[in-house]
Amino acid sequence: MPRSTQISHFMPMELHPVLELMARRLSERSEPGNRKDGFRLALVVEGGAMRGVVSSAMLWALEEGGFLPCFDLAVGCSAGAMNAASFLAGASGGCTREYAGAFSSRRFINPARVLLGRPMLDLDFSVDFSSTVMDPGRHRRVLESSIPLHCIATDVDDARRAVLSDFQDIGELRLALEASSCMPLVAGPPVEFRGRRYLDGGICEAIPLASARELGATHALVLQTRPRGLRYPPPQGFLTKLIEIRLRRIHPILPALYHHRNHIYDLTCDQVDADQAKGANALPAVFGLRLPEGTPPVHRLERRAKVLRESTATARDFTRREVVEPVLERAGRG
Fold first, then answer.
1. In terms of pTM, does the model score above 0.70?
2. 152-161 pLDDT tens trace
3. One-letter-per-residue 3-state SS of the chain
């Protein structure tokens, strides 16, 4: 695959301000909660059910490069929230491998369950799953991390975006991760968190850059799961109609939000590109990591292990080339 031209418009040896900040923090061995630069770098992670294998593999590459201390906050939506949690726990490698393992098994994902009135995805299974590569202690490490996790969800009573954070215990973390991902028929009914009900954050904000801004980010590294040039397809089909019927029973505005989420998504992608081109002139400075145009996309309900492994390799290698290697070189660790 040819090398992306994602940052080729910059002068040789010049890095985008987001990457430059990361390199400086690595070089200075800066730690979250004890910064001297006055900036707040957000890790923004898109999900998309099984398409989350892409952002998970990107995080795996960042984890291997020792980039965790660079960030001040993590903001994730749906599978992106679960991937961000794994990154904060130092378990991105195991999480990514399980996309082609346990998370592609019929125990987790089975579209036929809809015929029985049950959700296709078993969120309890994915949140509670542990294996030789995903240890059960990872949730505790997320709570203990000096980098706070913010899960994007949709408040179904107000039909608006919500940010779930400041978790008091593992039980609250579990609920927030499930609330960020649940959807009638696909992943289950609304989840109650601190007395309010929530659904998948992707209804309102699949790429939570606006939330990162509101949380005080001055810089943002945005991990996206659809390749460049691929727009979000308009909602269609019998399943979409069934989901909208279920959503209408919960709140009359939710079907409209769900039906038009593709327009919001595409606008956000365009905004990420525009902000990235502005460099330090954008507020916050934004670097979007997105696979090159023509890269085979991953279906949100993909179960083929071969496809998931190939997507993992593509996203991991791409992240190494576009972020890990140039930043480590600038930091003097290449």
1. yes
2. 999 999 999 9
3. CCCCCCCCCCCCCCCCHHHHHHHHHHHHCCECCECCCCCCEEEEECCCHHHHHHHHHHHHHHHHCCCHHHCCEEEEECHHHHHHHHHHCCCHHHHHHHHCCHHHCCCCECHHHHHHCCCCECHHHHHHCCCCCCCCCHHHHHHHCCCCEEEEEEECCCCEEEEECCCCCHHHHHHHHHHCCCCCCCCCCCEEECCEEEEEHHHCCCCCHHHHHHCCCCEEEEECCCCCCCCCCCCCCHHHHHHHHHHHHHCCCHHHHHHCHHHHHHHHHHHHHHHHHHHHHCCCEEEEECCCCCCCCCCCCCCCHHHHHHHHHHHHHHHHHHHHHHHHHHCCCC
